[in-house]
Amino acid sequence: MSEQKCPFHQTTTAGAPIADNQNSLTAGPRGPVLLQDYQLIEKLAHQNRERIPERVVHAKGWGAHGTFTVTHDISKYTRAKIFSEVGKQTQLITRFSTVAGELGAADAERDVRGFSVKFYTEEGNWDMVGNNTPVFFIRDPHKFPDFIHTQKRHPKTHLRSATAMWDYWSLSPEALHQVTILMSDRGIPVSPMHMDGFGSHTYSFINADNERFWVKFHFKTRQGKVNHSNAEAAKLIGETRESYQEALFGTIEAGQYPKWDLKVQIMPELDADTTRYNPFDLTKVWPHADYPLIPVGTMELNRNPDNYFMDIEQAAYSPSNIVPGIGFSPDKVLQARIFAYADAHRYRLGTHYEALPVNAPKCPANHYHADGSMRFFDNFKNPDAYYEPNSFGGPAQAPEYREPPLRISGDADRWNHREGNDDYTQAGNLFRLFDAGEQRRTCENVAGSMKGVPQFIINRALVHFDRIDPAYGAGIRKALSHGGDAKVQATRDLP
Ligand code: HEM
Questions:
Q1: What does pTM read for this prediction?
Q2: Could you tell me the distance, in angstroms and rounded to a whole number, from the CA of residue 56 to the centre of ligand 1?
Q3: CDD domains in the record, alphabetically (predicted)?
Q4: Fewest C-beta in 10 Å: which of 272, 318, 416, 453?
Q5: Angle at Cα 226 formed by Cα 138 and Cα 107, nearest 5°?
Q6: Each residue of 41-94: pLDDT tens digit?
Q7: d(CA 357, CA 310)
Q8: Residue minimizing CA distance to atom 27 of ligand 1
């Protein structure tokens, strides 16, 4: 049946014309309202359903559409089609975010920033769900929900709690590498365009010969890394809470398209047995001297979403979205994230969230998942082939996409992730890399964030900072004493 042409007027959701959108249907001019006014009821009912749950973390975000262009040949490392030839372009959508703040949080807060990219490749969506930091607070996923509780609101005061944060961090010294980045000049980028992005985890590349390489992804901003001081950010938040949305949307609307260069670090598979650090530990970087950055391509953001909710709020990124040629690693945190995101999306968005326009792959999705809420599409090209295996030409598995086996070994146990792990050297290397000014500001930011924290927790944290670098601990003590806090003395009462 050909589509009927309708005149352009307001209608109900069922398409019937609306004659009056200003006055309710009432008995007499003073009311009451008649139950029969289904148009009023439809309007109110929809308003009641306008909000969906905000993301449990990374609720506040900003995003845009863009293009990825390959500039260098890395096909010897990966058979991923997105990288198959120089000049090849792939459409993508990004979402940047803060971690702890709610949907209405101010943009210019000191926090880690999320850096998510969904590449619509010809072999399915590849999601890079990273941060603007190469490391993370934890290396065992068992610790994630507790960590996030310390970043969110206290159950009684309903306020963010510096005590909870420092209690947790001082009991979890593996976090202090990431805390050092967070408290450094890089803690408040001036906009999402002025920060780098990192896949953070170690992933796999798999080439056409089925050889596996370990890989880390880096997005290097071409806009320069520019950051706010605490004072600048506080002033800015007083003027606007939406500085990132204004900057990103405004820049793209003005036709100035921000760009990042994608680079990778590649580690031959067997090197992982001999590196002096665990290359699957999310609290560690791979030194660039050992594994230099290899250029791959350029990401450009060149189109604002027409509808923020449709494209950005409904965007569902997941580390489980990989494509042939890109795979996982034994990183324990990555393993948990492979589960957590799709589970979160089914709750936040609904069963068939991947059929929503922003999440739908640009290649056919030939699965057998049936029915359920949101089943507004029909992907059974032959209605008799609605189970698998079948004799009616339905889509079947494609063994040529098998990955090489992942080499693992070891006894199943709850292994102590702290045993034999050095939580201090890399954090110290970073601190020593800062110039004197950034060292001082980092110490001041740490001290400032400790306001109101009980002395015994501060003391416990200082022991760790001393171990990272004695100058780090001393700098924080000095900043604390300038801040008028009670006399601080490090103790050795670690648990
Ligand atoms: C968002 C879980 C670690 C980056 C989320 C969401 C969940 C989650 C449930 C909300 C998803 C949604 O509703 O759309 C976890 C768990 C982790 C973990 C269980 C560790 C065990 C990490 C790490 C990174 C990261 C290590 C970065 C390297 C992000 C980003 C988002 C996010 C960028 C926002 C995605 C978007 O823009 O929609 N995480 N996360 N997370 N997470 Fe994680």
A1: 0.95
A2: 9
A3: catalase_clade_3
A4: 416
A5: 65
A6: 999 999 999 999 999 999 999 999 999 999 999 999 999 999 999 999 999 999
A7: 8
A8: 130
